[in-house]
Fold this sequence. Notes:
The complex is a heterodimer. Chain A is α/β, with parallel strands linked by helices. Chain A has eight helices and seven strands. Chain A has one domain (2-160): Alpha-Beta Barrel (Aconitase, domain 4). Chain A has helices at 16-19, 30-34, 45-48, 69-76, 89-98, 106-110, 143-151, 154-160, and strands at residues 2-10, 54-57, 81-84, 102-104, 117-121, 126-129, 134-137. In chain A, α4 (69-76) crosses α5 and α7 packs across α8. By secondary structure, chain B is α/β, with parallel strands linked by helices. Chain B has helices at residues 5-13, 38-47, 72-87, 101-107, 139-148, 173-184, 199-203, 206-215, 230-237, 297-300, 303-313, 331-339, 342-349, 399-408; strands spanning 24-28, 31-34, 59-62, 92-94, 116-119, 133-136, 150-154, 158-164, 193-197, 223-226, 257-262, 269-271, 279-281, 292-295, 323-326, 351-353, 374-378, 393-396. The model of chain B has no long low-confidence stretch (mean pLDDT 96). Chain B has two domains: 5-261, Aconitase, domain 3 (2-Layer Sandwich); 270-417, Aconitase, domain 3 (2-Layer Sandwich).
Amino acid sequence: MVYQGKTWKFGANVDTDAVIPARYLNTTDPAEMASHLMEDIDPKFLEKIKPGDVLVAEENFGCGSSREHAPIAIKHAGLSCVVAKSFARIFYRNSFNMGLPIFASAEAVEGINQGDEVKVDSEAGTIENLSTGKIFKVQSIPPFMQQLIEAGGLMNYVKKFKMKTE
Amino acid sequence: MGMTLAEKILARASGQERVTPGQYVTAQIDLAMAHEGLAAVFMNLARAGWTKVWDPSRIVALLDHYVPAPTERSAEIHKVVRAAVKQWGIQHFYGERAGICHQVLPEKGHILPGMLIVGTDSHTTTYGAFGAAGTGIGFTDMAYVFATGKLWFKVPETIRFDLQGKLPEGVMSKDIILSIAGKYSAEVAQYKAVEFIGPLAEEMSLASRMTMSNMAVEIGAKFGFFIPDQKVSDFLQGRGQTSFPLISPDADAPYEAIYQIEVSSLEPQVAYPYSVDNVRPVSEAQEVKIHQAFIGSCTNGRLEDLHMAVKILKGKKVHADVRLLIIPASWEIYQEAIKDGTLEALIDAGAVIGNSSCGPCFGAHMGLLGSEENCIAAINRNFKGRMGSQKAQVFLSSPATVAASALEGKITDPRNYL
């Protein structure tokens, strides 16, 4: 898969409450979750982004809660993927389960400035900064987890392969 | 080469003689816990066409995040959870009269050393205090567990914190874990298992251990173990559990890193907004005015935490401009604190006591902050907007520092009152 868009760059330790504040956690509607994306960091964030844009962050992106609201909100707001130096463990799992592609690469994050246009190729394992021409390597993803992304998340994967309780 | 606790438990649960860090395994889950998130778990199950759960006796469900329901919407979620528990035949359910999941599960005898436990809550690492591999997962992962009893894991590297020395008066295990976060960052254990060992770990009460295992996730950890010992046995034997093996890491187990933590000269610690690793010792705390002080949560709502507060507050009055909230982590603790006079002493000092639940810790109810307000809290997170207004600030500390700060209306060294 190839994901291409303008980058929106954030700092280190962007927590799940920053992605979507806990006060909105008692909703199950993805569109409503998406409508609060990053609002405590930048209340106008949603007006600025376009479908396919790429979220970029420093270390420990998604630390905090085990709520899936964070990856759901990012995905349903139309962002195509997240590139960060590193991800918090639970967010990492949840992203694959929600079908949100995420890529860990410290050097790519170093080499991307706010607003740069990037192209992420998950099969080639590369992130190309189209604004500067530089190409970076991405950590590879185990095949099973790649399948989760392709299916659009764990529940869709399960349906696709007709897994049922014994 | 030997194995760490995480490796031993994941090897057993995946039916292998040994596993090594980096390996992906599919493991059998011993116990699954879900709180209000159960509503979303069952929605996922129904959507995927599953009709029954793998083992209703291995699932514990409870309500703890917002009880009693503060809004109509949360009342509706509770209704869904109660109906789902009946419909799916979940055998263990605790409603309003139990408390916070990570306190209630051990109290009710559900947690045994060596178990592999997943919960729909990031602080599921708390069960590491009993030698169990507990970790938080999302609702979709949990739906998969409910249906199949299995989950994939990447076997984590293990890092070890060797705890030594004697904690000075007024310094608590909370201060140790905050100082670890401050010194080594909120990422030091990212995707790793942690073992807290050493003479001080052995000496610590289960309550103190639970505080550190609970906050292991705040430094990124997947599991946060103490080695189970006689204290764990004694605790469990009073709770309907009679036989279980005590598990320990092998002497030649591989550790990615070993940190020596000497506490004899440790000061009370405070984590400033908005990150758990933005830590400084209380002596370097600038004059910070406090509007609210809170002792509670799965991190610090246990009896020894309340006893420490009494030690500092007894016979004194909370500062006129401070609201002091205290929420015992469970009904069992609540009742003990009534019997031994703890709650009376706290109320006399001016504390407001809340029903056992997560309370304001994650910003749902019972004591949220307005803009420009500061709260010093014996809880686990100080993210922006977590406890109400995004213009409010939360400072993390031990219950002792919270109590002393409540007296003076500013961040205060508890040692001045001991």
